[in-house]
Amino acid sequence: MSFLPLRLQRRSEGRTVYFAHDLNLKGDVYLLYGFIVLLIRISVGLLGLVGNTFSLVVWSRPHLKSPSSVILLVLAVSDTLVILCGLWVDLPDAYGFLGHYKGNLMLDYIQLKYEMNYYTVWSMFVSRAVYFMAWTASMYLTLLLTVERSVCIFNPFRFSEWCSYARTCKFVLAVVIFSILCNLGKLCWERRVIGFYKVILDGEEFTMYKEVETKLYHNPIYAEVVLVWMVIVLKYLVPLTCIVTLNTITYIKLKKVNKERLTMTEAQKNDNKLTRMIIYVVLEFLAFSSFTAFAGTSNLFPSPTASCWFLISVLQIKILVRGNHAGI
């Protein structure tokens, strides 16, 4: 019988992945991270799935057909993909943490048979790429929704012309295509799945598979331009800055409009209520997105200590409310 021990610290092509053993942490910290944090992730993710299901049911009703409903429908779908892909990628960690907590530092039959086979590793590889595509779509759909509400408040008489149903559908399609193209490298040329070890357990031979980075991924120019600045600028800086700016201006305009409530039509009042509700939702989105942006971009730079790296990973919790998400 041949058994492959799980190394406590792995060095792969110049990158170091830290495990809790590097920090001399005890079993109670494994219990905290492996169970409590995981349960929080799953619970919040399930709540997010329930909320997105209700959103899909409500906004798909014919009498609510509007430009805003199109954006909210696709936004609910993208958030659902973020949650499902995030859960699928993270679930195997639960079994690993359980094994570590029990003192088992070696791969067992379940991990060899089900977790590290080709189809499971490939599905996680695809899920991770879809995760980032859906996350980018959620970010820019939120920006599109903010722009749509801003036009409604600042130019109510031209809103129907500028933000027609057909035009909004085209913008939503453009956002989806942009999100796919922006993260296509994660699926096609940055990583690949390979078989790297053969293990015999109880007379049965297993081939272990894993994801590895390609040479292009470690190219200094590609890493700096695509993996650092493109991510920081396109995925976080541009959309978050635009969302904050537009919502601030819209909120100031709403306060002025509320003083003229007596001269407003019923339709304008309803639009203002919808805008106010969306501003609150966007504020919640900003709170989680800003934190995950900080935690995600921090992974791009060397951490001074392993404990700092572990602290970031614990605090991040891969927030799944609106796309939890996320690291890079």
UniProtKB/TrEMBL annotation:
Key words, A-Z: Membrane, Transmembrane, Transmembrane helix
G-protein coupled receptors family 1 profile domain: residues covered: 51-286
Q: Which Pfam families match?
A: 7tm_1
**What GO CC terms are in its UniProt record?**
membrane
Organism's domain of life? Eukaryota
Task: Please indicate if the UniProt record lists Transmembrane as a keyword.
Answer: yes
Subcellular localization is given as: Membrane
Q: Name one GO molecular function term.
A: G protein-coupled receptor activity
Q: Which SUPFAM superfamilies match?
A: Family A G protein-coupled receptor-like
Q: Write down the InterPro entries for this protein, in alphabetical order.
A: GPCR-Ligand_Int, GPCR_Rhodpsn, GPCR_Rhodpsn_7TM
* Record Gene3D superfamilies: Rhodopsin 7-helix transmembrane proteins
What is stated as this protein's family in its record? Belongs to the G-protein coupled receptor 1 family.
Its name, as the record gives it, is G-protein coupled receptors family 1 profile domain-containing protein
